[in-house]
Amino acid sequence: MTPTTVINIGREALEIMLLVSAPLFIAALVTGLLVSVFQAATQINEATLSFVPKLLVIFVTLVVAGPWMLTLITDYMRRLFEGIPGIIG
């Protein structure tokens, strides 16, 4: 196993992690921004007000993007396990 192989495996793992987490982060960011604008417009300063909408939006995002995320992770793991013989010897 060469250092280049290790770096490539680590790089690909980080790319997969970013791709899988991006929809959830973007959904939470947009929801938080919209709730913050609503709070600023109505002058409601309730900390729990942003929690429930974010939770619901993240749940909906998981339902919608979940199959894609799961496929991405399983494809990566399959490629990684199938490449073990080539990596070892």
Description:
This protein has helices at about 5-40, 50-80, 85-89. The protein is mostly helical and about 90 residues long. The chain has one domain. The longest helix has about 40 residues, at about 5-40. The protein is elongated, with a radius of gyration of 19 Å.
Task: Name its key features.
89 residues, 3 helices, elongated, mainly alpha
Layout: helices, strands, pairs:
Blueprint: H1 3-42, H2 51-82, H3 84-88
Question: Which sequence of SSEs, written as H and E, runs from N to C?
Answer: HHH
Helix content percent band: over 70%
Largest sheet composition = none
Radius of gyration: 19 Å
Mean pLDDT over the residues: 92
Number of strands: 0
Return residue spans where pLDDT drops below 50 for at least 5 consecutive residues: none
The secondary structure category is mainly alpha
* CA-CA gap between termini: 8 Å
Please state the overall shape, judged from the principal axes of the Cα atoms. elongated
**Number of separate domains:** 1
Strand proportion: under 5%
The DSSP helix count reads 3
Q: In short, what is this structure?
A:
The protein is mainly α and 89 residues long. The chain contains three helices and no strands.
